[in-house]
Structures are given as C-alpha cells and as structure tokens.
Amino acid sequence: MVDKYTTKVTKRYAKTFDDGGTSHSFRTEATGDTWLRANKNEFKGVMDEGNTVEIEVERTTARGGKENVYLNSAKLVSGGAAKPAAGAAAGGGNGGGGRGHYSDATQQAIQYQAARNSAIEYLKLVVGANACKLPEKEASRLKALDALLDSYTAQFYADTSTLGAVKRAVGDEEEEVKAETEAGGEDD
Q1: Residue 49's domain spans which residues?
Q2: Residues 89 and 124 in one domain
Q3: C-alpha torsion sign, points 123, 128, 134, 135
Q4: Over the stretch 48-89, which tens digit does the pLDDT of each residue have?
Q5: Engineering a disulfide at 164: which of 35, 42, 129, 159 sits with its beta carbon 3.0 to 4.6 angstroms away?
Q6: Residues 166, 77: one domain?
Q7: Are 128 and 168 within one domain?
C-alpha cells in the first residue's frame, strides 16, 4: 500500500555497516514512531529534521508479519532549498497536511471496516430479535451467519459510495416495500 503525506521530518538516522555501506531511516509527524526506511538513499537536504516535505511511503509485510515502511520519494516543501532529493523522484503531495489525511486505499479500508462493524451490529439485532431463521446444526448456523455478515458488509460498504440506504428510503424501492406490506405480508 502506498501513502502520500505532507509532513514535518522529526528524526533522521544513519547506520553504517561493517562493509562501509550506510542505511538511512527517517521519522515524520505523519508516521509517528514508525521508521521510514530509505536504505542507501540519504535524501540529503530534503529529509532534514524540521523540514516540511511531501513524501510517498510504501508499506509491506515481511515474513513473520512485521511491517516494513519504505520511503519511495521526498520533495522539500519548506525549510531548505525547494527541490527533489538527489536520486529520488519528486513525490506528488496530496496537500492533505499530514496527519488526518488518508490515502484513497486507507480511506477505503476505513469505510470497509465501518461497514463490517455495522453489519456485525445489525446481525446482533436481527438474531437477537429472532428476525431470521438459522439452521439447527451449529456448523451450518456459523456458515449462514458468515454468509449474512459478508452480504450485509458488501451492502453497507456499497452504501458508503452510492448512498444506497438514502436512495432506498426516498426512491422507488420505498413504494415496493409499502406495496408488499399492504398486500398482506407476515406482519399483518
């Protein structure tokens, strides 16, 4: 996953190895305590403490589940001579101001998790009110609940971008629901 930030550099660190190679890492306000790995790229004059920069970082998961965060590009916004770092592509900033701004992928993940949590709460209400019939066998019940959870999660997630619930409440489907109720559904 690639994220872009406009943020301030809070720390820089260089580690020199026995073979003479040096690895560079940085911390920013937007990424908090997470070290951004730049490997051999020093981002000299750009990723200096106190500078405001536009950065692009890539998050990967290593074996064992550890997250690695790599600094792909950095562009100086203020605090020095405004130019891309030597050896690095100029990063495209999003103007989001660092903390509080999320990339599209992060925003989608947040919306998905909110939809999932809403689906869980909805299923608690439905099952608690005995509003749906579940299979007798425990394994079958779990599969049915998983399928319902996935279905409602997908529906709630789609509603975040299409405003589906709003359209259903004021659109043509409202008339269909009224017609079914008036025609003598189970509630009569």
Answers
A1: 2-101
A2: no
A3: positive
A4: 889 999 988 888 887 777 777 888 888 888 876 544 444 444
A5: 159
A6: no
A7: yes
Tokens 């971008």 appear where? 161
In order, the DSSP letters of 105-121 are: HHHHHHHHHHHHHHHHH
Other C-beta atoms lying within 10 Å of the C-beta of residue 79: 16
Q: Is 4 helix (H, G, I), strand (E, B) or coil?
A: strand
At which of 76, 101, 126 does a domain end? Answer: 101
Q: Domain check: are 83 and 117 in the same one?
A: no
> Is there a contact between 38 and 28 (Cβ–Cβ < 8 Å)?
no
The structure tokens listed for 47 are 């990723």
> What span, in angstroms and rounded, lies between the C-alpha atoms of 58 and 2?
4
Q: 3-state DSSP call for residue 156?
A: helix
> What distance in Å separates the CA atoms of residue 148 and residue 120, rounded to the nearest whole number?
9
d(CA 48, CA 51): 6
Find out whether 96 and 5 touch, Cβ atoms under 8 Å.
yes
pLDDT digits (tens, 9 = 90+) for 15-35: 888 888 888 888 999 888 888
| Global confidence as pTM | 0.41
